[in-house]
Amino acid sequence: xxxxxxxxxxxxxxxxxxxxxxxxxxxxxxxxxxxxxxxxxxxxxxxxxxxxxxxxxxxxxxxxxxxxxxxxxxxxxxxxxxxxxxxxx
Length: 89
Prior knowledge:
This protein has 89 residues and is mostly helical. It has helices at 6-12, 22-47, 55-83. The longest helix has 29 residues, at 55-83.
């Protein structure tokens, strides 16, 4: 008789020990503004996939790009400030 090992993997893939740790959840929370800004940028770009972008679409994309960049800069600055001794940025 052949044993099916993949069934066990499918059952244990969602075991309790596979939950994210508190540290991982904190990292996700810190990156959430970047994630949301990227989603907003993607939404603005998706709207223009099947048509010629209007001036309003172009402004929306530029604004979303600036927000995404600002969110990334804020995340990098926060990470750099946290890693410097004495709290200096």
